[in-house]
Amino acid sequence: MASLTGNQINQSYQGLIKTIDNGAVDPTVLKQLSDGLGGSLPIEFSQVQTNFLGLVDFSSATVSGLPGGAAGLINGTGSNSLVSAPSLTTIAATAGFSDSFAIGNNAKSNAAGSMAFGSGAQNTGSQTWASIALGQNCTNGNNGAIAMGGGAKTTGTGAQAIGDTTRAYGPGNLSFGQNCQSTGGDGNVLIGRFISLSSGQGNTVIGGSNVTMPAGQNDNVLIGRTNSVGANTSNSIAIGLVATMGSGANDTVIIGRGSSAGAGAQDSVAIGRDASVTANQAVALGYQTVASRSMFVSVNELETTVVGGGIIMYSPDGTAYKLTIANGGTVSVAAV
Question: What pLDDT is recorded for position 6?
Fold first, then answer.
């Protein structure tokens, strides 16, 4: 370290540090420092404040007097894993497998690539790889699953439970909405509020409210609020507010507010508000139409809109006849 002792001022002033304006240090106004030649330095002073104007490297220094702070994220026990620091929570988070994350009080990620965010969020067991738990006390019990929302839970492979207290316990089940619960079966989709299903495959309920699917139903579709389907019914579709499918009404389609299919009305169709089918292979078209005869199409009234058109019917021997009407109202029947 060079000393100023014995050096003349005119030969050494260049290395002296001073205020940039050569004045005294001000009680409150910051002044930048410079060397003896006026070259500015990246620091400002007053009697009460110091500012750094550039990069500051404390890597080789011991800094004292600064308040200490708790760590935020630290490495878990698995390779490339991260957990929230134990000092931040009552129960330490754990991430014991590679590429896993656990952030929050008692959060756990017990499989590779899994993530748990929130107090009590957990991917339990070694088979929950690539699963995501997001929310207070939400849990996953198998791989590729997603539990999102307070108390949401999954147990099936690839299951997804999204919403407050949702459940998706079967493989591939999706429950989306408050208290939607698919507690069995597989490949079922529940979207709405307070929908429940305990078994069955491939069922879809959308927009429901307070809907309970009977056990053992397969491949049904319900779209609309407060729809329902009876026991032992499969491959049927109900669309519309309060559309009701009776028990055993397999392969039946009802569309419209208040539309319905009676018990055992299989392979039938009802379209229109309050339209209803009560027989097999029956079709009801229109407002409040009831189809009670098998293999019949029931309408309130029928209009053909093609000028000169008609209705074709078949005789017992299979001959086709067309019923038409001429100008003046004369009705005629001719083979076609």
Answer: 79
DSSP H or E run through 12: helix 9-12
Tokens found for residue 228: 């329902």
Tell me: do 196 and 254 sit in the same domain: yes
Residue among 17, 23, 65 at smallest CA distance from 46 = 23
Residues 277, 264: contact at Cβ < 8 Å? no
pLDDT band at 159 (very low <50, low <70, confident <90, very high): very high
Do 182 and 222 belong together in one domain? yes
Strand 73-75 relative to strand 82-84: parallel, antiparallel, unpaired?
antiparallel
Locate 176 and state its tokens. 């989306």
**C-beta separation of 160 from 146 below 8 A:** yes
Residues 179 and 291 in one domain: yes
First-to-last C-alpha distance (Å) of the chain: 119
**Together in a domain, 205 and 258:** yes
CA-to-CA distance for 27 and 78, rounded, in angstroms?
Answer: 55
Same domain flag for 329 and 188? no
**Is the whole model's pTM more than 0.85, yes or no?**
no
With contact defined as beta carbons under 8 Å apart, do 254 and 239 qualify?
Answer: yes
pLDDT grade, residue 150 (50/70/90)?
very high
CB distance 181 to 175 below 8 Å:
yes
Q: 58 lies in a domain?
A: no
263, two tokens:
């018990």
pLDDT in tens, 293-335: 999 999 999 888 999 899 999 999 999 999 999 998 999 999 9
E strand or H helix at 239: strand 237-239
Domain count, the chain: 4
